[in-house]
Write a structure and sequence with these properties.
Number of helices: 12
Distance between the termini: 25 Å
Order of helices and strands: HHEEHEEEEHEEHEHEEHEHHHHH
Shape: elongated
Helix content: 40-55%
Largest sheet: 10 strands, mixed
Number of strands: 12
C-alpha cells in the first residue's frame, strides 16, 4: 500500500466526519469565489463600459465618493474641449431607479446622453431606431432590459410616472448598458429635476497620445487645474479609465466587503478543519504509536496528518468551486441583478479559492500534526 492510498483509507474510515469537513471547506470556498467573482465581474463590466465607447479619461467631481451622486454643470464640457490633447468630450447623467417588473422591484439604470457624442459608439440598434435630436419622450432599451420588461418597439412604458415611447432596442458589448435605458440628456435632466446637471464626463484624447500613459496623465492634470471665469477652480477630478476603476470608492468598498466576508467564512472553515484533525489524532493515538514503533519517523507522521487535511481541503474546494460557478449562473437570472452581472467567474478567482483551501488545510493540520509527531511508541500501551 503506497502512502497516498494509506491517507485516503484513513479518511474513508470516518466517512461522515470527512464528508462534513469537506462540506465546511466547500461553504468557505464557495463564499470566497462567489463574492470575489461578483466583485471582479462588476469591476470588469464598469471598465469594459468605458473602454468599449473609447473613453480614455473619466472626469468626476473632486471629492465625490459616489459617481451617481455627482453633480456638475454640463457647460464645463466646453472648457474641457479646449484643453490641449482632448479630442472629444461626452457628458452624461446616470440615475438608478426602481421599476416594478413582474411584481418585483427591479433596479434599472437610466442614462442620459447628448445626441452625437461618442457614448453611442458602444451600442448597436437591433430593432427600431436610435434617438434623434428632436426626440422628447423617447427612450431606447437595452436588449436585456427589454426582455425583462417584455417591451417592444413603439410600445409606451412608464418611467417615474411619466410615459415614454420605446423607439429602439439595442445591443451592446457592455453588460451594464444591455440592462439600461437611454434617453436624451436634456430629457433625463427634466425627469430627475436636474436641469443642466451631469454626473460625469468621458474624454477621448488625441489619437497620437492614446498609447502614452504619461501624456494622458498630463491631460488629466490640465483638466484638474481648470478654473472658471472668476479664477475659481472647477473642482474636477480627471483620471485615466484604468485608474478611475481601480480607485473608485464604490468598487473598492465592494471588494473590501467581499474579502472581509470571505475571510470570516475561511476562518470558520479553518476552525472546523482544526477540530476534525485534532479529533482524528486523539482517536488514533494507539495507531500512531504503533506506526512510530514500526520505524515511522516524525516527519512521516506529520506528512500523513497534513496530507489528510490537504486532501479534505482540495476536495472541499473543488466542491465549493462548482457550487459557486453554478450558483453565480443562476443568481444572474434573478430580476434584481439581471443586466448588472454576467455570472462569469475569472480563472484567477477560482485559483485564489483553491490556494486559500490549500492553506486552510496546512493551518488546520499544523497543531494536530505536531501533536501526533510527539507521540512515543510507549504511549500506545495506555490505549490497549
Amino acid at each position: 500500500m503506497n502512502f497516498a492510498t494509506f491517507i485516503l483509507k484513513n479518511l474513508l474510515r470516518r466517512k461522515a466526519r470527512s464528508l462534513l469537513t469537506m462540506c465546511g471547506i466547500a461553504v468557505a470556498v464557495a463564499t470566497t469565489i462567489a463574492l470575489l467573482g461578483v466583485s471582479d465581474d462588476f469591476q470588469s463590466a464598469v471598465l469594459q463600459s468605458f473602454k468599449n465607447e473609447g473613453s480614455d479619461i473619466v472626469i468626476s467631481p473632486k471629492g465625490s465618493l459616489l459617481q451617481i451622486a455627482g453633480d456638475m454643470n454640463e457647460a464645463v464640457a466646453d472648457d474641457i474641449r479646449k484643453v490641449p490633447g482632448v479630442a472629444a468630450v461626452s457628458q452624461g447623467l446616470l440615475e438608478q431607479i426602481a421599476m416594478e417588473i413582474d411584481d418585483n422591484q427591479v433596479p434599472v439604470l437610466l442614462q442620459g446622453w447628448k445626441h452625437g457624442t461618442f457614448a453611442f459608439n458602444d451600442i448597436e440598434i437591433i430593432e427600431g431606431r436610435s434617438l434623434e435630436p428632436d426626440d422628447v419622450d423617447a427612450v431606447m432599451l437595452g436588449e436585456a432590459l427589454a426582455e425583462k420588461m417584455h417591451a417592444k418597439v413603439n410600445q409606451p412604458i412608464e418611467i417615474q410616472d411619466e410615459t415614454f415611447n420605446v423607439v429602439g432596442i439595442y445591443d451592446s458589448k457592455t453588460l451594464l448598458k444591455r440592462g439600461a435605458a437611454i434617453m436624451l440628456l436634456r430629457r433625463l435632466q427634466d425627469l430627475m429635476l436636474r436641469e443642466g446637471s451631469v454626473t460625469g464626463f468621458s474624454v477621448q484624447v488625441d489619437p497620437e497620445i492614446k498609447a502614452d500613459a504619461d501624456a494622458i496623465e498630463a491631460v488629466c492634470e490640465r483638466i484638474d487645474n481648470l478654473n472658471d471665469a472668476d479664477g475659481n477652480s472647477l473642482n474636477l477630478d480627471a483620471s485615466s479609465t484604468d485608474d478611475y476603476v481601480r480607485d473608485n470608492f464604490q468598487l473598492k468598498l465592494t471588494r473590501a466587503m467581499a474579502w472581509v466576508t470571505s475571510l470570516i467564512a475561511v476562518g470558520v472553515g479553518t476552525i472546523g478543519m482544526l477540530n476534525t484533525m485534532i479529533m482524528s489524532v486523539m482517536e488514533r493515538i494507539r495507531e500512531i504509536s504503533v506506526l512510530r514503533a514500526m520505524g515511522w519517523r516524525r516527519g512521516r507522521v506529520i506528512a500523513m496528518i497534513v496530507g489528510e487535511s490537504i486532501v479534505l481541503s482540495i476536495f472541499g474546494a473543488a466542491l465549493g468551486a462548482g457550487v459557486a460557478i453554478i450558483g453565480s449562473h443562476y443568481i444572474t437570472k434573478m430580476p434584481q441583478v439581471n443586466g448588472f452581472l454576467s455570472g462569469h467567474i475569472a480563472p484567477w478567482v477560482i485559483a485564489s479559492g483553491m490556494v486559500i483551501a490549500f492553506f486552510v488545510g496546512l493551518i488546520g493540520a499544523a497543531y494536530p500534526a505536531w501533536r501526533a509527531s510527539r507521540l512515543l511508541p510507549s504511549e500506545g500501551l495506555r490505549y490497549e
